Amino acid sequence: MINFERYADEGNEFLNTLAKNLGHNDNKAQVGILLRAVLHSIRDCITIPQSFHLIAELPMFLKALYVEQWRYSERPERIKKITDFTEKIESEQEKMGERLFNWNEPTIDLVKTVINSLKRYLQPGLMVHMAAELPIELKPLFTEHASAAKG
Asked: Are residues 17 and 5 in contact, defined by beta-carbon separation less than 8 angstroms?
């Protein structure tokens, strides 16, 4: 039997932990928007085969966020700089109704925290393969702190 309550519990636990790691326990709605924006931005910047590898390792509650509103594209977006990536994330946040994200922290620091939180579910090899597809400026986001990934 499928236990959707378990997925919801796991998702809420992850979101609570992420909110704590970001230092924003009282802004879980914004944390959820940030998480979704980061997942969608990653998804749009890697190939379909890499997305499938990533999806295979994510727990069900993250798979759902990852594929939400996904449109097939033969080629991933070419993001060349960290600033382009953070601007894409901010744009994704705006699409979800978040216009007043006023945590007074650089977006890149928030993104690093989200990615590091995701690494607990991902094999280090996957992170290396994903990084190989990305421009040099983005590689450290996926390869730094590899010990945070499951081993």
From this structure: no
